[in-house]
Amino acid sequence: MENQKQSAVGKFVSEKILPPIMKFVNTRPVRALQDGMVYALPFIIIGSIFLILSNVPIPAVAAAIKASGWAAFFNQAYTMSFGILSVWAVVGIAYVYVRNEGYEALPAGLTALASFLILQMLQISSPLVGAMGKAGTGITNAAGNVVMSGSAVAENVDKLPKALQGFLSAPVSGVINITWLGGQGMVAAIIVGILVGWGYTSMLKAGWKITLPEQVPANVANQFTAMIPSGVILIVSMLIYAGFKGLGNTDVLQFIYKVLQTPLQGLSDSLGGALIIGFLVPFFWFFGVHGGLIMGAITSGLLIPNTFDNANLFKAGQLTIANGAHVVTNEFYNNFINLTGSGITIGLVVFTLVAAKSVQLKTIGKVEFIPGLFNINEPFLFGLPLVMNPFLAIPFFLTPVIVALSTYLVIYFGIIPPLNGFAAPWTTPAIISGFLIGGWKMALWQAITLLMSVGIYWPFAKKYDQVLLAQELEKEQEEANK
């Protein structure tokens, strides 16, 4: 009876729930988002290293680096790698979209970048405004030391003629505002990348291109092929910019950030968001669908900006929840919800190596041990298997949810600090990744989550082991009686 219920549930999920989800995941925009974001990963990871070097979590070393001036050099490298991740995203998404349609893709990626820049105001607020007053940053030197306080700046500026004061406090124009090239521009970059990819391929399919004779070299002909689609997209981008500027004295990136990205980031950073992500990853895997791939594609556009915001707070020495640090970031997803693999299966690994009596569990445990250290658990998912296995479904679903819940709470209530923005690769072993993304307290908490996994999986694995052992003994007895 129980097996019939499980079969009915599995059939319902397989026939009613998974098909529309897989249809959505396999759409051109989602595939472009998923594969296009990959192009940003090297810059995020390498940039994270520069972030740590400029903010070494050892006060004496950090002070020495800052005094030497090298912190400014590391910050420069961080800003132009991790700090402009929206640039890599918009280029990568449009590139992949057009590549998947079988066309020359690089011109589309460059067109998306040009469109992304056209849609934003080429100005930044005057640095003098932020430096003035009691709450101002003051004026700092290359080493980051304050050489004139905010109050002193205000007092001296007030002595200048009004016309000169107005000139000094006016926005700086004719420059690219890197604020919108980082995390704050991510959702806009995703939208622009997808729309440019769609528009570019649609025009090429409709024959909107300049075709040159066969004698013209391919590299030259390809640029003429791109000319009409690129030109149309850039003209449309200019008109959209003009509309936002003229009607609301704003731009598309600021509008998207306020209306769309901020609410979505808040949702992704909530306790409910953490629990939903923690549940859905193993849920999809249980039915044989790559849960990490699905949830990664859906959440990366929001969790990576959360990581970026925390990195900036960490760089400024203000990484606290009170200052706006996020609890749920891309590293929360990679290094807690998916720690040791989807379902946080390290507890199952430990049982198979220490207490398993069945040949099946002992054998697969040895195979999984090394991959599990690097957060890879496909040997368990398909070899044990965990997929459609009712004996292990409860711990497989429950462990990531409990880890997500407890990790959210210990960060939210200040027991351990928020994640610092370092983008540890998802294959980084536990404990090591914890230290990189949050220091020794985070490493210690990761060790505790591993123990949680052992405690949750143990009784279920023990029962499953008994079932397998009984089956093996029965099979041996049958063979002996032949």
Automatic annotation (TrEMBL):
Membrane topology: Multi-pass membrane protein
Record domain PTS EIIC type-3: where: 13-460
Keyword set, alphabetical order: Cell membrane, Membrane, Sugar transport, Transmembrane, Transmembrane helix, Transport
Stretches that traverse the bilayer: 39-65, 77-98, 104-122, 178-200, 220-244, 274-304, 336-356, 391-415, 435-458
Pfam families: PTS_EIIC (PF02378)
Chloroplast as UniProt keyword: no
Secreted in keyword set: no
Main subcellular location: membrane
PROSITE patterns assigned: PTS_EIIC_TYPE_3
GO function terms (MF aspect): protein-N(PI)-phosphohistidine-sugar phosphotransferase activity
Any one GO cellular component localisation term in the record: plasma membrane
A single GO BP: phosphoenolpyruvate-dependent sugar phosphotransferase system
Highest taxon of the lineage: Bacteria
Subcellular location: Cell membrane
Entry function: The phosphoenolpyruvate-dependent sugar phosphotransferase system (PTS), a major carbohydrate active -transport system, catalyzes the phosphorylation of incoming sugar substrates concomitant with their translocation across the cell membrane.
UniProt-recorded name of the protein: Permease IIC component
Gene source species: Lacticaseibacillus saniviri JCM 17471 = DSM 24301
